[in-house]
Design a protein that fits this description.
Layout lengths: L9 H10 L2 H6 L5 E3 L2 E4 L11 E4 L4 E4 L5 E3 H9 L3 H11 L20 H16 L2 H9 L4 H6 L3 E3 L5 H6 L5 H6 L3 E3 L6 E3 L4 E7 L5 E8 L7 E3 L15 H11 L1 E5 L2 H9 L5 E3 L7 H8 L4 E4 L5 H15 L4 E5 L7 H6 L3 H9 L7 E6 L17 H10 L7 E7 L5 E8 L1
Parallel strand pairs: 12-13, 12-14, 14-15, 16-17
Antiparallel strand pairs: 1-2, 2-3, 3-4, 4-5, 6-9, 7-8, 9-10, 10-11, 15-16, 17-18
Length: 425
């Protein structure tokens, strides 16, 4: 996703180029030693024993004689972080203090206010509230959520009560901004402001660049609405955002594979098991824009939806969206009523950790081969895309120690199901 409602201008790009320090960026990922006017070190973009990574601070360029990659500081940041160009400009502008232009005015409408100060203040309030709530911390411990992971994802807590956040942030943050950010509402009966998030575990939702857009809140009480999200703004549109992408983008770029799951806890559960390249939708069905966003980082997608009928139906709906973006799609298979987080926390943790770790191989999921007629889509086994018998042999050769169940679906032009055959080994 591009810079949302921030205007990307040539002046902004040039201002970032003028102030960014390529040595500063490179030194975060490798140890550099001065060699003449250049600095040398081991390349942070690939594994090597002999330093072949050269940085020229005068020209602001880098080059690796080992892998052949080179460019300026912005390109190096993109390769190291997984940011695309617009996200890199925004991230570096914030890092080096380059003023960002005001949000773009919506055609025919008022200028969108800058809601980030209100959102960041709320995020800190939720984190502080979690640190003061032993009950909520115990809940996370029961769900086996590592403290390091909770802190890394900025998970917080909205305490019970109608005005906790309101009283903490106002008047420092204007009421109009708190309301526009979806943090407070107005009672139709009394006309008074109240906190929208109450007694909920709070998950900050960020753009790929890391910019805070809104929150998702999971109830810790008996609220019928298990999850609620911030309402949409010009910057936060649920159909354009993937939860966790800011954290996962580098791992996705490095492996070319993303795991997409249904919920916030599923993301944290997968990351806790070592699968860093995990993202989720916003509690709604995957959209074409989200599929397009994912395709900019990955070439393969593993769909890790719940192992119930609803999860299976949801998978069949997202399949054509992902295939239409040229992605190779595989289905992670969980037991009935299981999901990535419950799988991790169930008995037999070592074996279940292994199940998650074998993403990228055959065992445990459905291999979906996009056989779009006349299209050059990538396939799991391109040279055998139409040969089910040969595919059966290959699956047999690559089976794990324990017998596994495979369901192979061939997809015809238009991404409709043409043939399905179950194979039990």
């Amino acid at each position: 996703m591009a810079l949302s409602n921030i205007q990307l201008t040539p002046q902004l790009v040039q201002a970032v180029r003028d102030v960014v320090d390529i040595v500063d960026i490179a030194a975060e990922h490798t140890q550099l030693r001065k060699s003449g006017r250049r600095q040398m070190g081991r390349c942070p973009l690939h594994r090597e024993k002999t330093p072949s990574f050269s940085v020229d601070p005068v020209q602001g360029l880098f080059y690796c004689f080992g892998c052949g990659r080179g460019g300026d500081a912005i390109k190096l940041h993109m390769l190291l972080s997984g940011d695309d160009f617009p996200a890199a400009i925004e991230t570096l502008a914030r890092r080096y203090g380059v003023p960002l232009p005001p949000p773009r005015q919506q055609r025919g409408g008022p200028r969108e206010p800058d809601l980030e100060p209100a959102l960041e203040a709320a995020a800190q309030f939720f984190v502080d509230a979690l640190n003061r709530s032993p009950e909520t911390q115990s809940y996370l411990e029961r769900r086996q959520m590592p403290q390091e992971l909770v802190e890394r994802f900025g998970v917080g807590y909205a305490p019970d009560g109608w005005t906790n956040l309101l009283e903490a942030l106002h008047p420092r943050i204007p009421l109009a901004d708190l309301k526009a950010a979806g943090l407070v509402g107005i009672s139709q009966k009394s006309g008074k402001y109240y906190d929208r998030f109450r007694q909920r575990l709070m998950f900050p939702i960020r753009a790929a660049s890391g910019r805070l857009l809104g929150f998702g809140g999971r109830t810790l009480a008996d609220d019928k609405a298990k999850y609620i999200n911030s309402h949409e703004t010009a910057a936060f549109r649920k159909g354009y955002v993937l939860y966790g992408l800011d954290m996962a983008k580098r791992a996705i770029r490095e492996s070319s594979t993303a795991l997409i799951v249904e919920g916030y806890f599923d993301v944290l559960g997968a990351v806790a098991s070592g699968v860093d390249a995990t993202v989720a939708t916003m509690g709604t069905a995957l959209t074409e824009d989200q599929a397009r966003l994912l395709s900019r980082f990955a070439s393969d997608v593993v769909v890790g939806y719940d192992g119930d009928e609803a999860g299976e139906n949801a998978f069949r709906r997202v399949l054509p969206l992902l295939l239409s973006q040229g992605l190779t799609v595989r289905r992670a298979r969980f037991g009935e009523n299981e999901d990535p987080d419950s799988l991790r926390t169930s008995a037999g943790s070592h074996e279940r950790f292994l199940i998650i770790e074998v993403f990228g191989r055959y065992a445990g999921f459905t291999s979906l081969l996009p056989t779009m007629a006349g299209a050059a889509n990538r396939c799991l086994i391109p040279e055998h895309r139409f040969d089910v018998e040969r595919l059966t042999e290959l699956l047999w050769e690559d089976r794990l120690t324990n017998p596994s169940h495979y369901s192979v679906c061939l997809v015809s032009e238009g991404a409709t199901f043409k043939h399905e055959q179950d194979m039990v080994f």
